[in-house]
Amino acid sequence: MRAPLPPLSSFPEETHPEAIAVHAAHRHQHPGFLVTLQSLSNIVVVALFIMMFIAQPFRIPSESMEQTLLVGDFLLVNKQIFAPAETWHGLLPYRSLRRGDIIVFHDPADSDLHLVKRVIGMPGDHLRLVHGRVFINDKPLDEPYAVYIPRGPDYYRDNFPRRIEADSAIQPYWWMQMLKLVENGELIIPSDSYFAMGDNRNDSEDSRYWGFVKRDEIVGSPFLVYFSLNHGPDEAAVPLPVEQGQSKNEHGTWLDWVRWNRVLKIVW
Q: Span 26-39, mean pLDDT?
């Protein structure tokens, strides 16, 4: 006949069945929490690494790149595509900067700001605009991305470089530099410098107004529109309800303001 089990009170505290169950539960809980914390830490480290060295988010604030990029587009920018190959040799793809590339760079007039434009002129190029059309080394440049929304005549904007009179939007330091680089009606682009313009040619303050983009001012190239909100100044939509101090239910939710056809759109 099997002997009866002793009462719970007779077990030492460390061997009490209930204590054993609690200890077992703690053994299962603590490692799980630590593993979760470690996983989150790894995710944060990877995210910080990506943002610092590989990709960084930006938002389009103006109409200068329409219709390629719209106000309200949120971009991921590849920060390594134009970096020296020896930086992460064998791990990430690199290539030389080319005409037609879209670039994000520090504003030459205010290094705390970022701009996004397209590379039009390369080092050594002879550049001029005639009635708004770009000529490089006396040959018209094929630009399927450029749009010309009517804005009225502007002789400086459309017939660049123009040495007769300065536009009020020109940065003074650029006006003085430009005058020294014009020969036979063409602007000669120095080494390590790039001439950048917006695709929305009649509504873009670009290299025509503030000068060249230096190679070391370039942050990277946008490659993806990861999100987009439909409330640009040229859109039919009115501002977001939250911007008017209204509840979301008055004009629908924020989901109604997303440009779904632009989410995860590749940038060309």
A: 58
* Catalytic member of 79, 117, 204, 207: 117
Higher pLDDT, 119 or 248: 119
| pLDDT tens figures, 1-11 | 555 545 544 44
Structural domain contains residue 7? no
Task: Indicate the residue among 22, 45, 68 that finishes a domain.
Answer: 45
Indicate the pTM of the whole model. 0.73
pLDDT at residue 108 above 80?
yes
Same domain, 102 and 192: yes
Do 117 and 170 lie in one domain? The reply is: yes
Catalytic residue among 64, 193, 207, 221: 64
Q: Is residue 109 part of a domain?
A: yes
Q: Is 139 designated active site?
A: no
Known catalytic residue at 9: no
For the chain, how many structural domains are there in total?
2
* 194 shares its domain with 80: yes
- What is the maximum alpha-carbon separation in the chain? 117
- The percentage of the chain sitting over the pLDDT mark of 90, rounded to a whole number, equals 54
Residues 117 and 164 occupy one common structural domain: yes
